[in-house]
Amino acid sequence: MTNRKYEALVKKHTPKENKVKYAVTAFLVGGLMGLFGEALIRIYIMLFDVSRNDASTYMIITFIFVASLFTALGFFDKLVAKAKAGLLIPITGFAHSMTSAALDYKNEGPIFGVGSNVFKLAGSVIFYGVVSAWFFGLIRYIWEVLS
Amino acid sequence: MILNFRNVYLDNASTVCGPYEAKGPLSKNFDKKYTDDLYCKEKSFEKAEIRLLEDSIKILLKKTKLTSKDIDLVIAGDLLNQITSSCYGALNLKSPFLGIYTACATSIEGLLIGATFIDSGKVNNALISCSSHNMSSEKQFRNPTEYGSPKPMTATFTATGGASALLSNKPSKIRVVNGLIGTIVDFNQKDAFNMGAAMAPAAADTLYKYLTETNTKPSDYDLILTGDLGKYGKEILKDLMLNEYNIDLSKNYNDCGTMLYDLEEQKEVMAGGSGPVCSALVNYSTIIKDLMNNKYKKVLLIATGALFSPIMLYQKENILSIANLICLEAI
């Protein structure tokens, strides 16, 4: 059997994923996270009498803390399985990726375990985040010099 | 080439499983179950897997009333790098050791090697072991265990357990008739979440060669069982055998990956079980019992292995696969 013929056979027996359902779930959960975030910001502004900028930092810290705690308590992965990208794309997913990696490698010790593996998933995000920040900063600089 | 064995018997076997398998339909057939603890009372998942393998060896020795001194040869394999669980798990036996690897085809590879050693008269018995652990495999091959990223429906679920079997030249209820060592196949598969599709051509290749060379047909066997193709891989194999070789598998064929779990109730296993111990747990707990009770007379066991390396996949290489086959007969 040729590879192409086999590919057709595999396709025939591969179930169709309900992408619309996943997208809607992710949209709703992600939106809900946004709503929570906004509510938290307003609460922090009221409670602590801080600027909106400071309040959003507090909100992010709260999200990171709660996500990490839920990961450590062992049920964030179950929520992710249900909510899909709605929980993985916001800051909660970033925190979860680091905490879950740290948990996995705690037995290998602080240096060769946690230290060198905590960025296993988040490393790419940070690396390309920094690179693209530099790149766009450069574009902005050139733009300002030219104009 | 068919390996014919004249004087090899499968004396007994043992199985130890984790929580997910204990909830499955074959639960009552396993010798020992860790029903609620994936760590199996150990500190890490790797140590848990070692314990599962060790437990299965201990239970087998008890069942066969042998001591470790009586074992001439131990053959073991698993999924972890450096086949860690097998080496550490077999340490206390202090018997001659052969470590093997063909991913999920390991259990039958072990049986084939052991049977060949016994048939040649080099050893009197051989203890064949394998293990896998859902979490230690996830950690090594995929994402951190607590990450839980969404998977497609075709993904399979690595089984947790340890399983051992004792081959011997002393006659017992099950005879090892013959077998076929698989060849590595490459069908341009790159989806690590559809191992069934990667392994089905290997199973087809091995089964077709075996049936042709022995001049038999599927109806000559009471059961033909593949290792861990899963719900969709199973359909691919049936379709492939029918269209390519005109061999009908619709009557007496099944897949261990779909038998180990209740696919309707246990949604977390997606398309079914996988891992070296998946087929071993089903074969050693249920199929062997059925052979001993004469429910089956002759069965073909095909263990399918995806020789999957994350590094090679990132380097844009295909997922290779292999299938080893053994024929067992009740006497």
Compute the number of structural domains of chain B: 2
CATH class of the largest domain in chain B: Alpha Beta
Poorly predicted segments of chain B: none
Give the rounded overall mean pLDDT of chain A.
92
Spell the H/E element sequence of chain A: HHHHHHHH
Q: Structural class, judged by helices and strands of chain A? A: mainly alpha
Secondary structure tally, helices of chain B: 10
Shape of chain A: extended
Give the helix level of chain B as a range of percent. Answer: 25-40%
The largest β sheet of chain A comes out as: none
Total DSSP helices of chain A? 8
N/C terminus separation of chain B: 25 Å
Percentage beta strand of chain A: under 5%
CATH topology of the largest domain in chain B: Peroxisomal Thiolase, Chain A, domain 1
Map the helices and strands:
The complex is a heterodimer of chains A (147) and B (331).
Chain A: H1 3-12, H2 19-48, H3 52-72, H4 76-83, H5 85-88, H6 91-104, H7 110-117, H8 122-146
Helix pairs in contact in A: 2-3, 3-6, 6-7
Chain B: E1 2-4, E2 9-17, H1 19-22, E3 32-33, H2 45-64, E4 74-78, H3 84-90, E5 97-99, H4 106-119, E6 125-132, H5 134-141, E7 157-158, E8 161-168, E9 174-180, H6 195-214, E10 223-226, H7 230-245, E11 253-255, H8 256-259, E12 273-274, H9 276-292, E13 298-307, H10 310-314, E14 320-330
Parallel strand pairs in B: 2-3, 4-5, 4-6, 7-12, 10-11, 10-13
Antiparallel strand pairs in B: 1-9, 2-8, 2-9, 6-8, 9-14, 13-14
Helix pairs in contact in B: 2-3, 6-7
